[in-house]
Design goal:
This protein is of the alpha/beta class. Helices cover about 45% and strands about 15% of the residues. It is built from 11 helices and 7 strands. The mean pLDDT is about 95.
Length: about 200
């Protein structure tokens, strides 16, 4: 396979650190109750529709109808969203800046609500170095579905083999690999630079 000439970045836990527990460890005094809440109430299955375009207000309202005793905690997901983040990942910021300096085209492909992406993209100056971005909540489709990857190829005017796709989700990586992208499953920031160097991008 030819070497890639572009990089497509996931955002959460690749460029910026995101974890609901960062917020909810402050909301719940009891760690066990925090665990139960994030497993059974505000879990990823519940959150996913917001990444596909559903409003936070509507998604929270439906959940509060089921768990009225957690009304305030559920609303915190929407009202205190920025507190789920703990800052940029410095290693990623550094390589994005270096790739930009080398003229490598870079893009974002992220599952994210249409209501939160502007706040999230303001968390690091390197987002301004990207040449384009696709937000699932604006498109009504999300990873790991192949449709959003095809949209990325069309909008960014690249073929899968021309791009390295970096994501922390094994499911998203599996789709990208099957479609012919170069892939890096982001599990350790220290692996990023050697991978980029091995592919001739740095």
């Amino acid at each position: 396979m030819p070497r890639p000439t572009s990089v497509i970045w996931d955002v959460g836990n690749v460029i910026v650190r995101w974890d609901p527990r960062t917020l909810y460890s402050k909301v719940f005094a009891d760690p066990a109750e925090c665990d139960r809440f994030l497993a059974d109430v505000c879990n990823m299955a519940w959150h996913a529709p917001t990444d596909c375009g559903l409003s936070f207000a509507d998604n929270c309202a439906a959940l509060k109808a089921r768990y009225p005793h957690y009304g305030g905690e559920i609303d915190a997901w929407r009202l205190r969203w920025p507190e789920m983040f703990s800052g940029p990942i410095r290693e990623t910021e550094a390589v994005i800046a270096e790739l930009h300096a080398r003229g490598v085209r870079q893009f974002a492909l992220t599952n994210m609500s249409h209501e939160t992406y502007e706040t999230t993209f303001a968390m690091s100056p390197v987002f301004d170095l990207l040449d384009g971005r696709i937000i699932s909540g604006l498109e009504g489709m999300m990873k790991p579905g192949a449709e959003i990857f095809r949209l990325a190829c069309d909008r960014f005017e690249i073929a899968p083999h021309e791009a390295l796709f970096v994501d922390d989700s094994p499911q998203n990586i599996a789709t990208a690999r099957a479609m012919g992208f170069h892939v890096l499953e982001f599990a350790n920031a220290q692996e990023l630079r050697p991978t980029l160097e091995s592919l001739g991008l740095l």
